[in-house]
From TrEMBL:
It is a peripheral membrane protein. Residues 2-249 form the ABC transporter domain. Its main location: membrane. It comes from the Bacteria. Keywords: ATP-binding, Cell membrane, Membrane, Nucleotide-binding, Transport. It comes from Domibacillus iocasae. The keyword Membrane applies. This is ABC transporter ATP-binding protein. GO terms for molecular function: ATP binding; ATP hydrolysis activity. It is found in: Cell membrane. GO terms for cellular component: plasma membrane. PROSITE patterns: ABC_TRANSPORTER_1, ABC_TRANSPORTER_2.
Length: 264
């Protein structure tokens, strides 16, 4: 479903600030794979997500989604195949519009453009049905402005909107990091429920190592623009945070990689 081959991306090339953000990265994901990504700040995680989404173009390499070469396709054109939830709960929704209007925008993303949001009774019933999956009572608040919702409620709505159009690939970019622990746990549980229910191919960046172990069927760790560790489903089941840190220390030769650097 997702195939990244020899992805190379450098920033400020030829200057004293030159930084290799991705260094010949290969990543392959089958339909339904849920891969969690960990690594310290500057490891290349966000750049990886931005190259997949089309926000950034790689200097070398190819990005294939569902058998289609997306490498040079604009971000808005890739949106037909990609859903994304950002760290900031404010980023994925329009705060001055109602819940219903936000859902209509998400629903119509892959439809022919018209001047109407097209909120019919049938569509409204559909929205309520989907909102019930969140267990937050939002199905009874369709006319509420999204800007009045809590951060957790907005992030739950963003997650639902990102999956509305059955994307080929779902990108979760530290989507629980800005929430308090109880809301983060809520969104984590919703993520597992929705991804499992829809069978979505998902890539999730997180600084929470336990979350990276609890979710998904595969795990990768990035450092200095490369994937330095990868765990299959069976290997991941045997991992603990302590074993993961020990593995990283071994790979880095005791070079100071710690839970503090990973979670900072």
């Amino acid at each position: 479903m997702l195939e990244m081959t020899r992805i190379f991306k450098v920033f400020y090339e030829g200057t004293p600030d030159e930084k290799i953000a991705l260094n010949k990265v290969d990543l392959s994901m089958k339909q339904g794979d849920f891969v969690t990504v960990i690594g310290s700040n500057g490891a290349g995680k966000s750049t990886l997500m931005n190259v997949i989404s089309g926000k950034l173009s790689p200097d070398m390499g190819t990005v294939m989604i569902d058998g289609t070469n997306m490498t040079n396709l604009a971000e808005h054109k890739r949106a037909l195949k990609i859903g994304r939830v950002f760290q900031d709960p404010m980023a994925g929704t329009a705060p001055t519009m109602t819940i219903e209007e936000n859902l209509a925008l998400a629903y119509n993303r892959t439809k022919k453009r018209t001047l109407s949001l097209g909120v019919t009774k049938k569509r409204r019933d559909f929205y309520r049905e989907k909102l019930e999956m969140l267990h937050l009572g939002l199905e009874d608040r369709l006319q509420a402005k999204v800007g009045l919702l809590s951060g957790g409620e907005r992030q739950a709505l963003s997650l639902l909107m990102a999956t509305f159009t059955d994307p080929k690939v779902l990108l979760l970019d530290e989507h629980t990091a800005a929430l308090d622990p109880s809301r983060a746990e809520l969104i984590t549980n919703l993520t597992k429920e929705i991804v499992d229910h829809l069978g979505l191919t998902t890539l999730m960046v997180t600084h929470n190592m336990q979350q990276a172990l609890d979710l998904g069927n595969r795990l990768i760790m990035m450092d200095k623009g490369q994937i330095i560790f990868s765990a299959t489903e069976e290997e991941k089941k045997k991992l603990t945070v302590e074993k993961l840190l020990a593995e990283f220390q071994k790979i880095k030769g005791g070079g100071g990689l710690s839970d503090r650097s990973l979670l900072s």
